[in-house]
């Protein structure tokens, strides 16, 4: 342990080392419990990106997801087959194609989100009130980390 850590300041590496195993275990447990949806995690995040109602090019979806164009196209095709997204032509460039979420896609995203909220709430119910308050106090920090982290599409 470094002198800084012994004085109460933690390094990102020390915090990461101490929390990573538990985060991995919670992640796996959460997704095993929440695996009842027919939608995959990447499909859910695609729908979440599209839920703001702004159609996006397939290349933008791929970039936001950190996946290659063929993978994004395949995922969108699967969502399209289930009537959760639809492709629309770019009015300014007829060669361009956008995808947008459908009403059915919004309903499915809401349904799955509500289910997963309940699964995670079950996990949180194992905490006492002080622990739950501590987790609640960390929500803004976790949201900040999620907002700051961005994936880049593979080359």
From TrEMBL:
PROSITE patterns assigned to the protein according to its UniProt record, in alphabetical order: HTH_MARR_2 (PS50995)
Domain (HTH marR-type) ranges: 12-144
Highest taxon listed in the record's lineage: Bacteria
Gene Ontology molecular function: any one: DNA-binding transcription factor activity
InterPro entries, per database record: HTH-type_Bedaq_tolerance, HTH_MarR-typ, WH-like_DNA-bd_sf, WH_DNA-bd_sf
Originating organism: Corynebacterium kalinowskii
The protein, known as: HTH-type transcriptional regulator MgrA
Family annotation (SUPFAM superfamilies): Winged helix' DNA-binding domain
Lineage: Bacteria, Bacillati, Actinomycetota, Actinomycetes, Mycobacteriales
SMART domains: HTH_MARR (SM00347)
């Amino acid at each position: 342990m470094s002198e800084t850590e012994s004085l109460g300041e933690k390094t990102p590496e020390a915090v990461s080392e101490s929390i990573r195993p538990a985060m991995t275990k919670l992640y796996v447990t959460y997704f095993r419990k929440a695996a009842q949806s027919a939608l995959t995690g990447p499909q859910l995040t695609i729908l979440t990106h599209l839920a703001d109602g702004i159609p996006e090019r397939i290349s933008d979806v791929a970039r936001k997801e950190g996946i290659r164009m063929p993978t994004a196209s395949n995922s969108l095709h699967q969502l399209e087959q289930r009537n959760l997204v639809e492709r629309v032509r770019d009015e300014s460039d007829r060669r361009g194609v956008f995808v947008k979420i459908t009403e059915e896609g919004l309903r499915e995203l809401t349904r799955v989100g509500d289910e997963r909220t309940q699964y995670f709430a079950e996990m949180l119910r194992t905490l006492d009130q002080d622990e739950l308050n501590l987790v609640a106090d960390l929500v803004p920090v976790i949201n900040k980390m999620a907002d700051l982290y961005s994936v880049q599409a593979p080359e």
